[in-house]
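Consider a protein example.
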Amino acid sequence: MTRKMHFGLFLLGTGSHVAGWRMPGAFDSFQDMDAVREIGRIAEQGLFDLIFMGDNLYADPTAHPSYTVRLEPLTMLAALASSTSHIGLGGTVATTYSDPFTTARAFASLDHISKGRAVWNAVTGSSPQAGPNFGRLHPKHAERYAIAAEYVDVVRGLWDCWADDAITADRATGQYIDAAKVRPLNHEGAHFSVKGPVNIGRSPQGRPLISQAGGSEPGQELAARTADLVFAVVQDFEEARAQYAALKARLPKYGRRAEEVVVLPGVMPVVGRTEREALDKLAQLQSFVDSSNALQLLSDRFGTDMSQYDLDGPIPDLAIPDTYQSFAAALLNKARRENMTLRDLYNLTAAARGHWVLCGSAEQVADTLQQWFEGGAADGFNIMPSHFPDGLKDFVELVVPILQSRGLFRTAYEGGTLRDLLGLSRPVRIPA
């Protein structure tokens, strides 16, 4: 089979651009389920593989509106499952501020509700502001990843407590569950003690998919060992290609093949019928930027108060923070490579929260995505529209048909589960 691109849709109700909601006709709420359903409809029209929702666990009125005022991801995805039929449904639950039993149960439930379309985005949680909401201090980076590594193993173990055929529901014999095919987990570790089994049968996908986005060394190792999907933060083709190759090279030591992990760099496409039209759209978006909001995003990414520096001066000598390591590294590398001022970096962060911005005609955008896909930098892309619905419609109606005509993207959904869409095999139950 010819290799095909995969597309995830990064769902922020007000758009990935900090001021996207100010565009004419744009959705201006991430609490409106009718708007979310419309986004899901357009994404399925575009034959996307999955919808992905990040999350945060604190409210800052000066931050991105969709991170401050939003619905809880799993609740929203369960509702969205009823109005979609094919597209995967991915949501974030942080390992630092939750427990494995609840997470295993919740995503297994979503997999059953959606008939095999659930993805758990396993993150450690980068924001120290979340700690006080849970009555605890935010752990250091190394400790967060030690907790996460054990947490993910516990969740996967709980999903495997049930055999595929453990529920017999035999009316003739009266047996509902074959007890020999259900086992406890009996996990005792440094951070968790979990008996199990979880009280839900094995999910349609065997196990829901796991996605991750950690760019640090521990994050990459955890992804190589456990992830099905990796959301990459990159700004440059050569950087992306190096990261892609490095991650794939880690897989063999865990007995995994390159095709078992799908890598999707994040990109905010600003698409026009002509390059001029696209540039005008980006200029309009940037004209809406509130300086305090954009500066707060920059401060969050670098873990320091950026208001103390001259915006028109050079990039200060900043250390990689203990929080958003991959974002900070990608932004600083690009800034130094292109000799940016702090204002340039500020504008870049405002545009897509530190992700790659790709602005151009539909042909130009398709050409660039093809270059990255065929050049060993990506298996597809996590599309991050600047605003909804038009930012997504532009991509679906203008770019997708070009990629289809080139044989690079599907023309119809095939298979019943998200694993089928991504070409991932159904996992075998881990032996006891």
About this structure: The two ends are 35 Å apart (CA to CA). Residues 141-159 form the longest helix (19 residues).
